[in-house]
TrEMBL record:
Cofactor(s) the protein needs: heme
Top enzyme category: oxidoreductase
Organism: Lysinibacillus boronitolerans JCM 21713 = 10a = NBRC 103108
Domain Catalase core: 28-416
Whole-protein coverage range: 12 to 548 of 693
Parts forming coiled coils: none
Source organism, top-level taxon: Bacteria
The protein's name: Catalase
Keyword Oxidoreductase: yes
Compositionally skewed regions (Polar residues) per UniProt: 1-6
Span list, region Disordered: 1-31
Function: Decomposes hydrogen peroxide into water and oxygen; serves to protect cells from the toxic effects of hydrogen peroxide.
Catalytic activity: 2 H2O2 = O2 + 2 H2O
Compositionally biased intervals (Basic and acidic residues): 9-24
Keywords in alphabetical order: Heme, Hydrogen peroxide, Iron, Metal-binding, Oxidoreductase, Peroxidase
Amino acid sequence: NQSKNVEGNAKDHQLEPFRVENEGTKMTTNQGLRVSNDEDSLKAGVRGPTIMEDFHLREKITHFDHERIPERVVHARGFAAHGEFELYESMSEYTKAKFLQDPKKKTPVFVRFSTVVGSLGSMDTARDVRGFATKFYTDEGNYDLVGNNIPVFFIQDAIKFPDLIHAVKPEPHNDMPQAASAHDTFWDFVANNQEIAHMIMWHMSDRTIPRSFRMMEGFGVHTFRFVNDKGRSRFVKFHWKPVLGVHSLVWDEAQIIAGKDPDFQRRDLWEAIEIGDYPEFELGIQILEPEDEFKFDFDILDATKLWPEELVPVKKIGKMTLNRNVDNVFAETEQVAFHPGNVVPGIDFTNDPLLQGRLFSYLDTQLIRLGGPNFAEIPINRPICPVHNNQRNGFSRQTINLGRVSYHKNSLANNTPATSTAKEGGYVHYEEKVEGRITRARSKSFDDHFSQARLFWNSMSPPEKQHIIDAFSFEVGKVKSKSVRQQVVDMFVHVDKVMATTVADNVGVNRPNGEQSKVTASSPALSQANTVKLPYT
Ligand code: HEM
């Protein structure tokens, strides 16, 4: 039934030879030997010890013992689906990327939605950023748009990412709390790394408790480059807009659902696709001409800033439809390897220092997560176009590369893989001019932490503001360190005084002007002393 929906989907055809049907077959060992008994181990006598000779028992148990692979170091819990991307109009003016040229062309995609913090078995409706990673299987190779559902990020430079994640994940001494930001190290990191302010405003908003994966936006976050066939480059930001609109849960719903159905969002996605109510997302782009690079009071290389849509409108250029569930979650959802460095000609990077670090991190982590250098041969990761190079060997190599010459430039073979010119589809990096002294420094505007955080707050309706205050009060109220609670309140007064003062009263610390709070409990959210009337009710 499902395969009807994906007729002509090149990736689905490619996956076909790897599908194994077990129903109605005879059981064998991995060597193909038929098994006569799968219930009793081989013993010396009916009540005797099990004997070493039992190769079937050993193989079965050994394989089981090795079933787990490490979960992703972040975004461990995720759910994915297959689909297709179609373009509305040719983007040839902006980019030479082949899958963005012809509106008739359908490009197979695989999308994995995720939460960032929780482990593999955590609940779906945690207050958390959602990952939104898309693999486009293009005729020129795989292009990965590895985004989130929030348009900005926590930090500006990749060098802080391990610190961020160490602070956000459960605390190391007791491994709590699972999948939640309501704890001391998280808020201590916030107060001491104030570039996070804008992201935290989004984090405390309803955006981090989406109603459904089908009802949330996606963002590439970084500034990327489009390059057209004349070599002209423009800056670009990517957006996914859900056709169903953006919808969130309210906090109480999220909490109740977490208890009743921790699989709520994966079930929602799975069932929508099963009944043919296919999730759709439109791809939007914001384009900036190179001469406008310095037109704003923020740096376009700063991932904690967005490009306001009223200044740089979003143009919708195509639509993605998710129309097929996976056959096997481990084989596909777990083994898929996204990497922001997987690009195609016409799409290039910028010097965003967060992006630059990501370009290193993903391949590095996948080398261990997926057991060595051959994970690109796993069916879900294979491009639909041919792969030829001189790499060889390594754990679990699948291909049998023929010939004895596996090095470039040689005289023994005349048919080793040849490189391609740009005209022939060879990837040529954009020749950006770079100058400056080697330094550990950043643009001045990177230190403006609050302008866009205020912009966000001011764009909220009264109920949304109330939800943000409630979220701050709950999350910061769980922090045991009074000093950290105070630091957070003192920090967010730079966003809004009423907001910070109300939160101060709710979490039992001094108001930002030093005035004593009306509530004196040492940790009011823990002691349920949430008595202050909020201004937006
Ligand atoms: C997953 C690192 C920033 C989106 C991951 C993984 C690592 C990582 C190591 C696990 C990958 C795997 O095991 O396959 C980093 C670093 C960052 C960073 C070092 C900053 C320096 C971001 C940003 C975004 C993002 C800014 C969004 C724009 C994602 C997503 C996944 C992911 C969606 C899950 C992909 C999947 O579903 O398999 N990241 N990340 N990350 N990251 Fe990042």
